[in-house]
Each structure stands twice: as structure tokens, then as C-alpha cells.
Prior knowledge:
A seven-stranded antiparallel beta sheet has the order 2-3-4-5-1-6-7, sandwiched between helices. Strands 9-10-11-12-8-13 form a six-stranded antiparallel beta sheet. The chain is built from six helices and 13 strands. By secondary structure, it is of the alpha+beta class.
Amino acid sequence: MGGREDSVALGKHVTLEYYECDPEILANGRVMEDLFIAAAKAAGATVLGSDFHEFTPQGVSGFVIIAESHFSVHAWPEHEYAAVDIFTCGDSINFQVAIDTLKAGMKSEQVIISGVMNRGIVGNNGVEQFVPLFEDDSHSYALSWRKRFDGTHSRGISVNVDIYQPEKSRMGSAIQIGRLVESALLKMNLDTPGEFQCGEEHLKSGEKVFNLSQPLGDGAINGQFMPESERIYLYIYQHNYFEPRHFAELMLETFGGKYYRMQPYLRR
Length: 268
């Protein structure tokens, strides 16, 4: 529906997708709050207040209330992704400055404007009653991996999980690592036949690295543990369904990490 010369929009609503962001920034509620306040001010908004929440084990949601309306964000560090929307009334806000400031602050490699909506169209007879947003019935997206797994008749599921800044004291030996991983998997009710074996090797740089490769009852788990680099790289496959986020968060807790990234795959 096109605009008319006798119509005025009460507000403009822009939705933005920020990809390949720095996950450490996305996981830090204080840093994100400071960034969004700075972006609002740089764009010419009058900041009235803010409220940001840092979830456990990770993730941030927040609002910056401005006199012109609001900035909001929902961040998924594990996917290096942030969903942002900016709603303003009037034409005093510089959207491009806000977009660029947030992109630089979150160290995003790509930002896409996914929607621009005029909200509250006022004509000669008052506010016109229509919704300026249309759904595309040709695309559907499940909101859970379980629903997607069942809906696609998948045979198995795997997930890559990267854990950052784990506690070095929990990766002191191959035996310790094996026992911690095994205890975590038992909490997920996964079959762990045999004793977990974690080997040790040295990279060319001289850094100590522990490698784990273990068959499971219906799959396998592999991992590389790097105490000095403060990194853990894990891969797990199961022939039957398991909740990938549960696995990632359990491993984050087990090794005392600060944040994680993950990528699930449905295996058909």
C-alpha cells in the first residue's frame, strides 16, 4: 500500500539482522547496554533510560527507552547473531548513524535491514486500520530443534560446540577431562560404554593439547581441549534426538567457560 500526500506516519520501525558479531561482546550485558546507549545518542535520540538482562548461561536482551521511542536487541552469542529493532517517531533520528555505530560496536561482519515499516498511518479520517506487514506462506521455520527434527523425519542430530575461557584448573590432565565429559553426558542420560580415554599431544608451538575420541551407545563424541589458548572444541553425534542447547550449556557449566558458540545439524 503506497503512501498518500494527505497521510502521516506516527512512527518508523526498522528491524535489523547483525551477523558474524563478536560473541564475547554479545554475551556481556554491560558492554551491550553501553553500546546501545551510545548508538542512540550518536543518532540524535534523547535517552531516557535502559534495561538490559544478561541470561544464564549466556545471551542478552535489552531496551533503551528514548524520547522518540526505543532501541532493542536480543543477542545469541552462540550464533554470533543479534536481532535489533529501532522504533522512532518524528524524523530527527539518523538511522544510518545508529546502524553503523552498532555494527562497529558488535564487530559485525554483515548487517541486513530486514524490514522498514511505517506505523500508525494517520489520514483525514484518523488512524487507518491496516497492518503494514505481510507473512510469506511459502516459508516456514520451526522454533525448536525438536520440532524441526520430527518434522523432517531426521535420523540423527550432531552439534559443534566451541567453549571459550574455560577454567584451566578443570583441564589439568587427560584423566580429569575424560571424567568431566563422562559425568556431563551421564546427566543427559546418554549411554557411555567403556572408560573415557583422553590423549595428549603437543602442537608445533609447544602448547599442550588434549584430544578426546569416544564412541557412545548411539553415536560418538570428539573434542580438543586447549588450556593455554582457553578453548574447547567439541563435536557430538547421536542417532536419536538430544537437545543441542542442553549439551552446549552443560559443557559450558562443566568446564566453567564464559561463553560458547554452537552449530547443530540435522542428519537425514
